[in-house]
Amino acid sequence: MCTRLLRRCGRIRLIGLALAAFFLLSDAAQAQLIPSGAPIPLTTKPPVVFVEGYIISCGTTFSHNFGKFDQLFQATNRVSLLFDNCAFSGKPSIEELGNNFRDFLAALKYTDGSPVTQVDIVAHSMGGLIVRSYVAGKQTAAGVFQPPVNTGIRKAVFLATPNFGSSVASRFGSDIQTDEMSNGSLFTSDLATWNQGTDDLRGIDALALVGDDGTGLAVMSGFDDGIVSLSSGSIGFAIPGRTRVIPYCHNAEGFITTTFLCPPGAPGIAQGGSATDTNAAMVLSFLNDTPDWQTLGQAAEQNKFLSTGGAIYVRAKSSSDQFVTIQKAEASKSLNVKNSAVAWTELLPAQIQNLSLTTGAGTLQKSFNLPAGYVSAVTVKNGPLISRVLPAAAVIKPLNVAPGMFVAIYGSGFAADTTVADPLPYPTTLGGVQVTVAGAPIGLHFVSPTQINAIFPASAQGLVTLTVSNADGVHTVNVLVQPAAPAIFTLDNTGSGPAAALNALTYAVVTAAAPLQAGDYVSLYVTGLGTVHLVSGLQVADQQPSVTVDGKVCPVVYAGRAPGFDGLDQINCQIPSGIAPTSSAPVVVTSGGHSNLATLSIR
Q1: What is residue 252's predicted lDDT score, i.e. its pLDDT?
Q2: Alpha-carbon distance 374 to 67, whole Å?
Q3: Considering its fold, how many domains does the chain have in total?
Q4: Do residues 453 and 503 share a domain?
Q5: Please, which of 160, 199, 529, 550 could form a disulfide with 585 given CB 3.0 to 4.6 Å?
Q6: Apex CA 354: angle with CA 394 and CA 476, to 5°?
Q7: Burial of 170 (0-12, 13-18, 19+ CB in 10 A)
Q8: How far apart are CA 257 and CA 271, in angstroms?
């Protein structure tokens, strides 16, 4: 038949070959790095964005920096992209690169034209600082941050990121990037303290891999990868249990080995060669949502250095909250002082440390329990000192508050115990203490030397300043406000015990002796549902929350302010069927983020 219809059959064969070539090329295209600006194929998991570290001279390829990682991800049906530092002329500051990274993410499009709203990240060395700078919205001016409303990052792997700098950064160049990556830099100090004096990575699901195969010329044998110390590379300051040590060097070749910072032939922590290599297997496992990474490498909590020691970054302030110069700093050993501004050291015993600083405001002292495993950012000052601003109900993650939330401000040097007997509105001065948010006084319910309970303003949004002032001085921190940040009150005030809840029909407190059953309506008492609007005289939450009990949906019939109370929210929902009798059925409220996990008694 094909003899009689040779031309037609030939055309059919050509079309078939063309189609086969198209599909083969499509698969091959995904195996390659997606070029900058090109549309991104849709896959079941978000694209993986690789972020380079410090580049001495441009012109290197993806494979030079990251080996075969793009091919390894393609084998699991993942698409890879590269954020190229060399696309930006000169050596711009890390803050500028963070803003460039923001624009890079915003421009990503799928092949159907829809925007890419979520990515995974693999960041090497300085690349991790670029990502952190973007997440915090850090700007070049000291202390200025413009964090994005949503980071768009699902998961991140930080490979040998010098979160608190490197002792050998200056060997690679004399520019703003190497200066910002030096131990004791104002950049790393600012980044470590941008949100309530810390950085929680905005709750991003993250893993840090740090190497210990340096020669020891950078810091100490077994404690660095030739460039970055275990303490500096750890993300224990944000997430416990997510830093793992592997026998790799910072890079596998070039300046690092020629200067003997790494031994010849040592593997580079960012260079993926085979899916069975420890570094590649851990990155692939974590980003592909398998548990294998948990059994590879060594947990920081088991490392001989990180399990027993920590490190500190110290800034000093006057009682009026102005930074002051540091001439000398002592703890259980002498600290290094960078530019009279930041005192720092590593390899301190994890124990009570008594800091003594000689400063432009006189001698300042502070005692604190230094945690093991990471670098702690510490502020030392006289007068009031804020350590955290949390929902009064419970600790939640990430470190956010919501408009109209009942908050607890923790710290020291506030005032003697004073409580308000529930007048409305609450006073803006109590026990000689005033709290302002973005410069405006807020209502206070309780004041003690170490805690203040207050109502966050309903108008607050984004990153705002919170200031505590009394006769002894003032202290200001940044606080990140999200539209909602639910937290459940508990009867035992632990944040993880029996929920503060009533049977909505009998008004009985829900306990093991008075449990709920399927079909009952429960009133949960929470805070952090956010802004409200009036409906039939009730203040209904603008953002409707969802509730699960024992993992099953508890249909919500009301969510908003508890009538007659500022800062206290109430959710009414109907207990679903199918819950086995228990005194501790887990209950979670979700609105933007997840609440703490409390419990309900069910019969």
Answers
A1: 72
A2: 29
A3: 4
A4: no
A5: 550
A6: 50
A7: middle
A8: 15
Query: Is the domain of 220 the same as that of 346?
Result: no
On whether both 325 and 289 belong to a single domain, the answer is no
Q: Are 319 and 381 in contact (CB under 8 A)?
A: yes
Per-residue tokens: 507? 């008004």
Report if residue 16 sits inside a domain: no
Structural domain that includes position 426: 385-481
Residue 84 within a domain: yes
Peptide bond into 425 cis (omega under 30): yes
In terms of pTM, does the model score above 0.90?
yes
| Class of residue 362 by CB neighbours under 10 A (exposed 0-12, middle 13-18, buried 19+) | exposed
272 in helix, strand or coil? strand
Question: Given 362, 380, 398, which residue is the final one in a domain?
Answer: 380
- DSSP conformation letters of 469-482: EETTEEEEEEEEE-
Share of the chain above pLDDT 90, in %: 87
Classify the phi-psi angles of 219: left when phi > 0, otherwise alpha if psi is within -120 to 50, otherwise beta.
Answer: alpha
CA atoms of 50 and 47, how far apart (whole Å): 10
pLDDT tens sequence across 95-118: 999 999 999 999 999 999 999 999
Residue 260 to residues 57, 161, 176, Cα–Cα distance (Å):
20, 20, 25
Q: Is residue 537 part of a domain?
A: yes
Name the residue with tokens 């639910």. Answer: 486
446 and 570 together in one domain: no
The CATH number given to whatever domain includes residue 95 is 3.40.50.1820
pLDDT digits (tens, 9 = 90+) for 211-266: 999 999 999 999 999 999 999 999 999 999 999 999 999 987 667 877 889 998 88
Residues 172-177, mean pLDDT to the nearest whole number: 91
Please, are residues 531 and 542 in contact by the beta-carbon 8 Å criterion?
yes
The CB density around residue 365, as the number of other CB atoms within 10 Å, is 11
Burial of residue 26, with CB atoms counted within 10 A of its CB: 0-12 exposed, 13-18 middle, 19 or more buried: exposed
Integer Cα distance of 213 and 234 in angstroms? 16
pLDDT score recorded for residue 426: 87
What is the distance between the alpha carbons of residues 530 and 540, in angstroms, rounded to a whole number? 10
Q: Are residues 329 and 409 in the same domain?
A: no
Q: Look up residue 265 and give its two tokens.
A: 């032939």
d(CA 64, CA 84) in angstroms, rounded, equals 13
